[in-house]
């Protein structure tokens, strides 16, 4: 269309106005969205149109018109070359992405929709555009008589934090079945992170690498959840009636910050009745800012969606969070919604939040 319009208008304007050089717009625009074949075709048509304009006015073999035709041909060839280089890089990038996505999928396994008495939904938003995971992590495993879940946040973001995240995920999946108590499990994870940092932590960042984590245990026979927080934000407890509660936890130091034993960890026990939903999240969610620098008000927003089910709840948060940040997160963000089925059976344990040390529980 541009070639036809420019050629037609050039024949209608006064003879001292020359629109032929504008034909270069056609191959330049084509190169922005098409491949080398179509770009080459459009470039050839533009050169032919420039020759037709020269023939129409009887100046085809004048020096000025020949230079214009040659310049247009050279620019068209350059556009085709640009398209070829771009397509080759796109193929290379596609291969790298496929390998990275396979590796990332193998590292951060998707959580099952149902585990024991829990219905589970998860969401991960990486700060880096080409990454599917980064420094945030979550994992769940079935143990005898219950379910254990971990959500964590390694210092840093994007691909640079994957090493610590991989270590912590592997350590949790291995140790969650071998330790009968949460304090023992937490101490084992802390030792794993500490050993990793001792071997691989950069000298310039000595003492600055660590991971926050929240470990949870859901017994099948009790309507409670046991938690140990290692510097991680507390979850949000949503009731079917629309009430929101933030459990008061006793946080321990982050994993890898100071090596400690099981006695240093306090178990917080919170009632988790059928129909309740527990929302776990990392600080990338609550620290997401809008244009005015305001943090994302997670507690205010979730009360409007807490009766929609875990999958729908995360869908609403995802859409609202991206709208709040204009689609650009400054840090990785992860969320896990856990819903206890109303038809789950077991012995009820009522009461307020209770606390016990690791030594006392053992």
Can you give a write-up of this model?
- The chain has 362 residues and is of the alpha+beta class.
- The chain is 40% helix and 20% strand.
- The protein is built from ten helices and twelve strands.
- The strands form two sheets. Strands 1-2-11-10-7-8 form a six-stranded antiparallel beta sheet.
- A hairpin with a 2-residue loop joins strand 3 and strand 4.
- The model is unreliable at 346-362 (pLDDT under 50).
Please trace the helix and strand order, writing H or E for each element: HHHHEEEEHHEEEEEEHHHEEH
Intertermini distance? 80 Å
Tell me the helix content.
Answer: 40-55%
Largest sheet: 6 strands, antiparallel
Contiguous runs where pLDDT drops below 50 for at least 5 residues: 346-362
Number of DSSP-assigned strands:
12
**Global mean pLDDT:** 85
Measured by DSSP, the beta-strand proportion falls in: 15-25%
**How do the strands line up in the largest sheet?**
1-2-11-10-7-8
Quickly count the helices: 10
What is the CA-based Rg, rounded?
A: 30 Å
Helical/strand content category: alpha+beta
Taken from the alpha-carbon principal axes, the silhouette is elongated
């Amino acid at each position: 269309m541009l070639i036809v319009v420019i050629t037609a208008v050039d024949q209608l304007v006064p003879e001292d106005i020359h629109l032929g050089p504008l034909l270069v717009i056609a191959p330049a625009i084509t190169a922005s969205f098409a491949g080398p074949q179509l770009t080459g075709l459009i470039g050839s048509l533009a050169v032919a149109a420039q020759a037709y304009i020269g023939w129409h006015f009887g100046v085809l073999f004048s020096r000025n018109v020949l230079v214009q035709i040659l310049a247009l041909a050279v620019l068209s060839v350059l556009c085709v070359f640009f398209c070829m280089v771009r397509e080759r890089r796109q193929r290379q990038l596609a291969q790298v992405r496929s390998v990275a996505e396979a590796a990332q999928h193998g590292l951060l396994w998707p959580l099952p929709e149902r585990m024991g008495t829990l219905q589970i939904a998860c969401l991960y938003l990486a700060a880096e555009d080409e990454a599917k995971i980064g420094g945030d992590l979550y994992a769940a495993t079935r143990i005898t008589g219950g379910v254990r879940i971990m959500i964590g946040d390694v210092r840093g973001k994007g691909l640079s934090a994957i090493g610590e995240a991989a270590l912590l995920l592997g350590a949790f999946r291995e140790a969650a079945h071998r330790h009968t108590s949460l304090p023992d499990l937490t101490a084992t994870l802390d030792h794993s992170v500490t050993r990793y940092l001792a071997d691989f932590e950069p000298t310039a960042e000595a003492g600055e690498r660590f991971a926050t984590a929240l470990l949870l245990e859901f017994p099948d026979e009790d309507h409670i959840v046991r938690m140990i927080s290692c510097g991680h934000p507390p979850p949000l407890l949503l009731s079917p009636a629309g009430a929101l509660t933030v459990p008061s936890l006793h946080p321990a130091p982050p994993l890898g910050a100071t090596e400690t034993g099981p006695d240093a960890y306090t178990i917080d026990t919170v009632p988790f009745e059928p129909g309740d939903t527990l929302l776990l999240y990392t600080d990338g969610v609550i620290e997401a800012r809008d244009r005015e620098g305001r943090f994302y008000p997670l507690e205010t927003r979730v009360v409007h969606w807490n009766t929609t089910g875990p999958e729908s709840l995360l869908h609403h948060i995802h859409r609202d969070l991206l709208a709040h940040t204009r689609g650009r997160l400054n840090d990785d963000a992860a969320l896990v919604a856990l819903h206890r089925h109303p038809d789950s059976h077991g012995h009820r344990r009522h009461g307020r939040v209770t606390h016990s040390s690791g030594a006392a529980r053992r």
